[in-house]
Design a protein that fits this description.
Elements: H1 2-25, E1 28-33, E2 36-41, E3 48-56, H2 60-82, H3 87-99, E4 120-126, E5 132-138, H4 144-154, E6 159-161, H5 162-171, H6 185-195, H7 201-205, E7 212-217, E8 223-229, E9 250-253, E10 257-263, H8 265-271, H9 273-282, H10 287-302, E11 306-311, E12 317-321, E13 325-332, E14 335-339, E15 346-349
Parallel strand pairs: 5-6
Antiparallel strand pairs: 1-2, 3-7, 3-13, 4-5, 4-8, 7-8, 9-10, 10-11, 11-12, 13-14, 14-15
Helix pairs in contact: 2-3, 3-4, 8-10, 9-10
Length: 354
């Protein structure tokens, strides 16, 4: 009995010693398998950032710009992480890049509401403390995602809307820009086409559907998400979709992972898509399986199509969608992954221009 107890004591000491080594090196995984101690070497997956440019139907003449845009955004976010920046820094930088790119429905390039004006929503969340910031129906702001982060960092609130958000922006020294600077000829053309009496609403949404977003895990294992959108084409004035709503447009929690969503906002809100995915992951599903399960549930329950980028705290990630296309890109282990259609996963060096 004494010999067995002593041997168990030494085994516990060996386990504790290896676990300490794991925490220091972050490259060893140690586990107890019956009566033997097994050490398994694993690849360090961190940091990682995954970006999406919106789910929907992207016309052939715009697909290359969409793909190159998400690749550039993923590269920018990855550079932030490799330089020691936080996951929040990375997702905000990636989404800022997309907001500044007129190929996407966020910032410059946002779709127009029924009055021909731009109203935008944005959301950020950090997984260590669940800190959150959002803005909705905001106007004349070039980068709503940066304003959402200011809401998180500088106020006790989680969301500011419309004129209140603009007043806060002015108090923070965020410059306002002319609305015309956010409107592209492509967005105006789509708006006019959808106003015609014979317009097909479904057809008019094609080519300008979706939201942009990013998720990331930094070297400390902290997850974060960011999502930004101009909404849906020819929406009613004041309409707010899923993007600024916690658990809908995104969610981040270090205990499970981070998600950023895209698609039809009303459908996403009904199923609380981002939180649903993390619920499935908490039940043991992988990032990919959980994303597919939640998207399938949304389609069967409310007929909604969409897409997501998902990551767990270990750096396993997924870019999944039920729509025809979704431009996405990821940076991990100095490799850039990207795709547009289901099943695609092209790779190249992160330093190589797309």
């Amino acid at each position: 009995m004494w010999i067995q107890s002593t041997e168990k004591h030494h085994r516990r000491r060996r386990v504790r010693r290896c676990v300490v080594l794991l925490k220091k090196q972050k490259k060893r995984r140690v586990y107890w398998s019956q009566s033997s101690l097994v050490t398994e070497w694993v690849i360090d997956m961190l940091p990682v950032v995954v970006v999406h440019g919106g789910a929907g139907h992207i016309p052939k003449e715009r697909s290359e710009n969409s793909t190159s845009g998400v690749c550039a955004a993923a590269r920018a976010g990855y550079v932030v992480l490799k330089r020691g920046g936080s996951s929040m820094d990375a997702v905000v930088e990636a989404v800022t890049q997309l907001e500044n790119n007129p190929a996407f429905n966020a910032g410059c390039g946002s779709v127009l509401n029924v009055k021909g004006e731009v109203e935008m929503d944005a959301f950020v969340m950090e997984g260590k403390t669940l800190a959150t910031g959002a803005v909705s129906a905001v106007r004349n702001i070039a980068n709503p995602i940066q304003l959402a982060r200011l809401v998180m960092d500088k106020t006790s609130h989680t969301c500011l809307t419309a004129e209140g958000a603009n007043q806060f922006a002015r108090s923070m020294g965020v410059p306002e820009v002319p609305m015309e600077s956010l409107i592209t000829e492509y967005s105006r053309m789509r708006w006019r086409k959808n106003l015609a009496p014979e317009a097909n609403p479904v057809e008019c949404q094609m080519g300008k559907m979706g939201t942009v977003g990013a998720v990331a895990v930094d070297s400390e294992g902290v997850v974060a998400c960011a999502t930004s959108t101009g909404g849906i084409l020819n929406k009613m004035e004041g309409r707010v979709g899923d993007t600024p709503c916690i658990g809908c447009g995104g969610f981040a929690d270090n205990s499970s992972g981070a998600v950023s969503t895209t698609g039809h906002g009303e459908a996403i809100m009904k199923v609380v898509l981002a939180r649903l995915i993390l619920f499935y992951m908490e039940q043991g599903q992988s990032a990919e399986a959980a994303s597919d399960s939640a998207l399938a549930y949304m389609k069967s329950k409310v007929g909604g199509l969409g897409g997501v980028v998902t990551v767990d705290p270990q750096g396993n990630w997924a870019a999944r969608f039920s729509s025809l296309q979704m431009a996405w890109a990821a940076g991990q282990k100095d490799t850039l992954h990207y795709g547009l259609y289901a099943g695609e996963n092209f790779t190249q060096s992160i330093d190589e221009p797309h």
